[in-house]
Amino acid sequence: MSSSVQVKEVVLITPSEPTPTQVLHLSALDSQLFLRFTIEYLLVFKSRNGLDKNATTARVKSALARALVPYYPLAGRVRARTGGVSGLEVLCRAQGAFFVEAVSDHSLSEFEGAPRYVTQWRKLLSSYVSDVPKGAPLLVVQLTWLADGGATLGVGFSHCMCDGIGSAEFLNSFAELATGKRGHTEFKPKPIWDRHLLDPSPFLPTQPNSVSHPEFNRVPDLSGFVSRFSQGRLIPTSFTFDKRRLNDLKKLANSKSRLNESSSFTSFEVLSAHIWRSWARALNLPSNQVLKLLFSINIRNRMNPSVPSGYYGNAFVLGCARTSMKDLTEKGLGYAAELMKRAKERVNEQYVREVVEMVSSSQASPDSVGVLVLSQWSRLGLDRVDFGLGRPVQVGPICCDRYCLMLPVYDQKDAVKVMVAVPTSVVDKYDSLIRSTNS
């Protein structure tokens, strides 16, 4: 029997104090075509004895109104820039964010693994962000009370407004307001707009070489790859790697690598490589199919001067590891981890400037053929968000789809949960491969 969610209230929350009425330009990175979707978080909280649900709901609503004072652009609306200029801008008139309160017969234990199907938890963020350039709210928050006394907080951000780091900073500040730990004039870090820093105008003109930006190159679809993911049914999967398993992967990768001892792999590099190889081997693609692993690289400290603390816009570019199906599956974990490391090392200030120029001048966008997109949520601080309900015992997406997520694990600082949906026909093989750390 499927679980139900009943919406009790939908209300528009506006800033609790007057905020500037103005038009703010989004950066070239914010305006990228491939970022015109929603970041959707699902935070799951255990029940707490003596909790007053009505008082908690009122406190969260009040905190959201106060958070939208320093973060007032999140209460605005996005539109295309006027005057024939490409890109997006935010019209700030305190239009507000949506807040939803709901009740559900979902129970806490359901969120320990993957959902049974991609959209099983969709109604835990029922008023989700869509059609942002057409005037939809940029932020939606839904507090849902579970049947066993627990709660979920579903949050949707328009990705053109903020990246993972920026959205997590907002959530932690919002939560501190709800618990009274801090006032909105005391936010740390203080939210900073400064989107001009990642526009092409301050940069000298460049002639980017597309060979050095394989994330934007198109490759042939030799295997019906796109139709397998767009038309076939996908099954969500979840697997947790504890510290021991991660160390096993590191040992295996380092033993088969050409790197010297001082350049050993990080946990992120080896786990990403293992996921990528398991995914590719399960799909059983033609040996000459070009495959890419795309992953976000934070550029805040890769610029000179660095992007200031509190900048909550999109301050990342895509790292791209690229190889053939044959090499990825036959050359082993160390080879794949080296590709990851090299992709990270390529990203310097010049690389970022080239990306800014490309997405601004030609609206360059990543291909989808042969691509696995991986996003690391495990280091964002989402596991610290506390609205007076305690820290979340589960952090994940509203919908588990073809994008692979690395997630934090409650009370296991060094562990990582991996969630991704794969085609029905390969789910058993993928599950077997991802659990094996000796191949």
Automatic annotation (TrEMBL):
The keyword Transmembrane helix does not apply. This is Omega-hydroxypalmitate O-feruloyl transferase. Belongs to the plant acyltransferase family. Gene3D superfamilies: Chloramphenicol acetyltransferase-like domain (3.30.559.10). One of its GO terms (molecular function) is acyltransferase activity. The keyword Acyltransferase applies. It comes from the Eukaryota. It holds the Pfam family Transferase. PANTHER family: ACYL TRANSFERASE 4. Keywords: Acyltransferase, Transferase.
